[in-house]
Amino acid sequence: MAEHDAVPRMTEPTGRVIARCVAVLTIFASVAVLYVARALLIPIVAAILLALLFKPVVRFFWSRRVRPVFTASIIVVGLTALVLGLLYLVVDPISTWIEEAPKHTEQLEQKLESFKMPFRKFTEVTERLDEAANVAGEKGYVQPVELRSGGLASAVFSQTTGVLIGIVTTLMLTFFLLAASDEFLNALVELIPRFPDKKAAVEAFRELERDVSAYLVVRTAINIVLGIATAGVMWALEVPQPVFWGILAAIFNYIPYLGPAIVTAFIAISSIIAFDSLGEAAMPPFAFLTLNFIEGMILCPVIFGKRLRLNPVVVFISLMFWGWLWGIAGAFMAVPLTVCIRIALDRIAPLRPYGRFLVSRGDRPTTERPAPTPDTQPTVNVPPTITSG
User: What is the DSSP string of 61-114?
Assistant: First the structure.
C-alpha cells in the first residue's frame, strides 16, 4: 500500500519541460500586455529613455551644487521649446502638401506618363473589365461610389490630440524622473538582500545609463549633421522647402533602414513634381541616398565603435517587432530598447549566452565578466527631491 500511496516524484527532464513551457507562456503574456497597454506604456518608456539620456547632465550639475529640480526644469523647458519649434517648421509644409494633394497627384501622373507604355496591355484589360462592369450595372443595381474631399487631412490629423497628450505626459514624467534622480535606484538597492547583488545592480544600472545615454547623444549628433547636410544639398539642387527635408531626414534617421527609405521616397515624389526632366528629378533622392550611405557605412561604425554596435539582423527584427507592437513610436524606440536588453542579458549570468546574439560577430567579448566581490555595500548619492517651499 505504501508503494501505491507514494506521490510520484517529478523527473529532471519533466521539470525542464515545464519550466520552458512556463517561460514561453510568460513571454506571450508579456507581449500581450505590452500591446494592450501600449497607450500607457509608450509615454512611460519614452520618458525613461529621456531620463537615461539626461541623467548624466543632472548628475554633473549636482556635483556643482545645482539642485536636480532646477536642472530638470531647464531640460524639460528646452525639450518643450524644441518640440514646439519643430512643429512650427513642419506643420506648414505638411498642411500645404495635404491641401495640394489632388494637384500633386495629377502632376505626378502626367510626369510618369512615359513609364506607362510597357503597361498598356494591363490598362486595356482594366478598361475591358470596366466596360463589363458597366454592362452588368445596366442589368442590376450598382452601389454608387462617392469620393469625399478632405479624407487625407482627416486621416493625418485624426490622432493629433492623442499624440499631443502623449508628448505632454512624456515631458512631465521625464521631469519627475530627473528631479527624483537616484531615489528609485536607492530603493532598488535596499530591496536586494545580498551585498554582491546590490553592487551588481548598481553597476548594471550605471552601465545601462552610460550606454543608452552615449547611444542617444551620438545618434542625435549624427542625425543633426545629416539633417544639415540634407538641407544644404536640397537647397543646392533647388528642391522646394529644403529645411523641411533636413528636419525630416534628421527625425526619421532614428528609425534604422525604414526611416531613410521613407524620406527617399518622399524626396523622389517631390522632385518628380518640381522638376521637368527625370534626370533632374533623380538627383535629389540619389544625393540623399549617398549622404545616408556615408552616414551608415562610414560614420556610424567609426563613431559608435565596438561597444554600442549591434547585430544588424537583430536590429532589423527589433524594428519589425516594436513597430508592429507600438507603431511609429515603437520604431523610434527599437534600437535604444535593444541596447537595454543587451545590457540586461549581459549582466544576468544564465542569460549571458543569449546576449551574444545581439552583438556584432566581431565585437563579442572573448572573456566572461568577472563576478562581483562582496565588498562594502554600494551607496548611491541621492540628491534632494522636490520639496515644497
Answer: HHHTT--HHHHHHHHHHHHHHHHHHHHHHHHHHHHHHHHTHHHHHHHHHHHGGG
